[in-house]
Amino acid sequence: MKIQLIRNATFRMTYADRQLLADPFLSEKHTIKSFAGISPNPLVDLPCTPQEVVAEVEMVIVSHLHPDHFDPPAQALLPKDIPLFCQPGDETKLEVRGFEAVTVVKRSTDWQGITLTRTPGQHGVGVWAERMGDVSGFIFRAKGEPTVYWAGDTIWYPPVEQVIADTQPDIIITHSSGAKFGDSDPIVMDAEQTIAVCRAAPQAVVIAIHMETLDHGTVSRADLRALADAEGIQSDRLLIPADGEYLNF
User: Fold this and answer.
1) pLDDT tens string 154-200
2) CB-neighbour burial class of residue 56 (10 A; exposed 0-12, middle 13-18, buried 19+)
3) Phi-psi region at 113: left, alpha or beta (left = phi > 0; alpha = psi -120 to 50)
4) Nearest CA-CA partner of 195 in 226, 166, 216
């Protein structure tokens, strides 16, 4: 299998000889509003053209419908008949936007030899979790491929720990920017929570993404690497890819 981080939570994955695209966010630099009153978003350009991002993609997975996970440019560019998988409650909005092949993953579903299982997430703490709404992660399984757990926009909390314990994934993809609003707690994992994932899954390779793209992020790649080094987490166990970088497994 192969993963290419595009930017933010957007990644392409070659898995079971299929081309998958997750959470496509294709807006040009500084074309959407600030989330934290610091800078228009996104903070950086895509590492390639939007057309290159979607080229040869065979299916799309959308973890939730926040604008940095499925934005209007992506919706306009993707073919309306492409297989699109989502969490319960998002299907109507996707169909209204013209997508004709939407599959709701309530628990688990199969597509082209790939089993896709939805997992829980909590997008913050207390009132912020309520405001941010429902989010999901997904587990990918296929014959001859590593088991991949994409945690999605979630903090580190007991259900995530339970998924890791039950699934024993080979690869875990975390959203690790420590994004915050004002004095809120993080609404996704920060550096310390990402290290907690590494410790809970000593058999896994953790890939930290969703960093250095939005102005409410508080953790940089350098911050996370520095803490990992201090905690004895080796660079081959915690991968922190640059935008556009390929990871081969």
Assistant:
1) 999 999 999 999 999 999 999 999 999 988 999 999 999 999 999 99
2) exposed
3) left
4) 226
Per-residue DSSP letter, 79 = -
Of 239, 211, 242, nearest in space to 42 by CA: 211
Measured between alpha carbons, how far is 139 from 117 in angstroms, rounded to an integer? 5
Which of 196, 186, 241 shows the shortest CA–CA distance to 218?
186
CA separation for the pair 65, 238 (Å, rounded): 28
Domain spanning 2-248, CATH class: alpha beta
Burial class of residue 110 in the structure, from the number of CB atoms within 10 Å of its CB (0-12 exposed, 13-18 middle, 19+ buried): exposed
Of how many residues is the chain composed?
249
Average pLDDT, the chain: 97
Question: How do residues 107-140 score in pLDDT, each as one tens digit?
Answer: 999 999 999 999 999 999 999 999 999 999 999 9
With beta carbons less than 8 A apart as the criterion, state whether 230 and 221 touch.
no
Over the stretch 57-86, which tens digit does the pLDDT of each residue have?
999 999 999 999 999 999 999 999 999 999
Whether this model's pTM surpasses 0.90: yes
Which phi and psi angles does 137 have, rounded to 5°? Answer: -115, 180
Phi and psi torsions of 168, nearest 5°:
50, 55
Helix residue ranges, H only, 19-87: 50-54, 72-77
Give the closest residue to 171 by CA, choosing from 192, 198, 193.
198
Looking at the chain, the number of H-run helices and the number of E-run strands are 7, 14
